[in-house]
Amino acid sequence: MSAISTKNLTKYYGKHKGVSNINLDVKEGEIFGFIGPNGAGKSTTIRMLMQLIKPTSGEISVLNKPLTTEQHTLRNKIGYLPSEINYYKDMTGKQVLEFAARANDIQLKDTSTNQYAELLNFDMSKKVKSYSMGNRKKLGILQTLLHKPKLLILDEPTSGLDPLMQHSFFDLLKELNRSGMTIFFSTHVLSEVEKVCDRVAIIRNGEIIRTSKVSEIQESKKRSIEVQFMESGNLIEKYGLQQMDSAVGFKNGIHYLTVQKEIHNVLKHISQYPIQDISIHKPTLEELFMEYYEKEEGEEQ
Ligand SMILES: Nc1ncnc2c1ncn2[C@@H]1O[C@H](COP(=O)(O)OP(=O)(O)OP(=O)(O)O)[C@@H](O)[C@H]1O
């Protein structure tokens, strides 16, 4: 079953494109990453999923409810963390949470808040005005979990958290997911997707350029080759390296090639020339993502 499904979801702010033709299908039980650079359209998409802004066109269904009319009851089933949150500065973290719990008709003591706060090393007895950005984020995360939602929608949840906290936060996400929660979160940090997500959608300039399993991206047949020849200088033309990779690069004495297949032919070609050093490795997730972004950019020109 789909936890989130969108069909050709499009949002224009006046004449300015927010996103266009977004097709998402997040299955129940998944941890799904929504990754893209600044201004790509992540928050715009999420705000539409949360019924905070109206689409220009397209369809959305959340927890199997089409959002053709406003669905107030859905909010009780979703934990939403916006990218920026503001609280009354003179309240303590605990008071904020008690207030939010009352709004949801629940008692704070009946929630797992203490356990989660401990996991995130969060002191809820302090006033909001004394909290750092990371602590405000933690407060936001605790608030989204108060009502034990079926679906978590988190907009850049780790911004402001230090690496140690990010680690604890992802442990928490994994634990929540094991207990049956579907999690959809946006980020621009690749390693986060690699650590926890089952699948990922890559968004750029308001459009999804690929959706796939993280493991599939990692299993790419591509190989990156770094070679330093005995002869110095840029030898791309002299050695005909562009025949194997038209985007071959040269920097600080090293030639960089990315090849898809027939690696034996590439090695045969390279080894005609005296080699000082060579390394062959699987591209990192980061390199693969960068390739998507660059490819799309190239296509637009
Ligand atoms: N309220 C608005 N009015 C006009 N344009 C907007 C508005 N909100 C977003 N946009 C534009 O829509 C596009 C997508 O922005 P959005 O905030 O959704 O991206 P994002 O991926 O969440 O970026 P970031 O990672 O920086 O938060 C951008 O070009 C942005 O300038």
Describe this protein's structure.
InterPro entries: AAA+_ATPase, ABC_transporter-like_ATP-bd, ABC_transporter_ATP-binding, P-loop_NTPase. One of its GO terms (molecular function) is ATP binding. The two termini are about 40 Å apart. With about 300 residues, the protein is of the alpha/beta class. The protein has helices at about 40-50, 95-105, 115-120, 135-145, 165-180, 190-195, 215-220, 265-270, 285-300, and strands at about 1-15, 15-25, 30-35, 55-60, 65, 80, 150-155, 180-185, 200-205, 205-215, 225-230, 250, 255-260, 275-280. It has 9 helices and 14 strands. The strands form 3 sheets. It has a 6-stranded mixed β-sheet with strand order 6-7-8-3-9-10, with helices on both faces. The chain has a 4-stranded antiparallel β-sheet with strand order 2-1-4-5, covered by helices on one side. Strands 12-13-11-14 form a 4-stranded antiparallel β-sheet, covered by helices on one side. The mean pLDDT is about 90. The relative contact order is 0.14. It folds into 2 domains: about 1-220, Rossmann fold, CATH 3.40.50; about 225-280, Alpha-Beta Plaits, CATH 3.30.70. The site of adenosine-5'-triphosphate has 13 residues, from strand 2 and helix 1.
